[in-house]
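Appendix C reproduces, verbatim, an entry submitted by the partner laboratory led by Prof. M.T., so that reviewers can inspect both the input and the predicted structure.
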Amino acid sequence: MMVATRVTERDEPARRQPAAALVAGLYAITPEDPDTHRLAEKLTAAIAGGARLFQYRNKSPDRAARRTQAESLLGLCRDAGATLIVNDDLELALAIGADGVHLGRDDGSVAAARARLGERKLLGVSCYDSIELARAGVAQGADYVAFGSAFASPTKPSAVRAPTALFTQARAELRVPIVAIGGITPENAPIIIEAGADAIAVITAVFGAVDTAAAAAAFCRHFQRGQT
């Protein structure tokens, strides 16, 4: 499989769709893997399974390597009509022309990020178990908010747990998509979707599966049922 070439601003969509259309269903977050070819194969498989929303997550201190990898994955997403958001790194998201950025509590000002991104890019914020953080994020320009860990998470075993009632409250109160993250599997996904999550963010249960395409499809089916 050929790795996608560098993406330029000319390749960006002329105008992004509303956040509610983009931040929905399976939100597949890439694992940290220095092997770009292997990661690209898994992302391609997830696309084959129906995933159309991705987050590039890599904490490596090697900025050049992260940029090269992110550009490759962005190219694959562009070819498939999928969305790629960068985790925690506003500068990287801007440099490669990604579809947006997702910020944690310690990743800088949400309002400042909104100003630099403009209105065409997506901006998401982690709100953990706090409706107050979600309210503040939306007030500062966030397009979506994420709560979690929804369940015990193998990626972040010590993460604070977000009760299902929080998703119901956020759905009723906030006018932006609600994302659930942490320990979500095809088996427990319906619990959090019924509670109010518009999207479910998953790392291990998709990218760690033996069959990535089948795993992605299993998650996507939960949302397809809700549309019928």
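The beta strands are 25-29, 53-56, 83-87, 100-103, 122-128, 144-147, 178-181, 199-202. Additional entries are available on request from the coordinating office.
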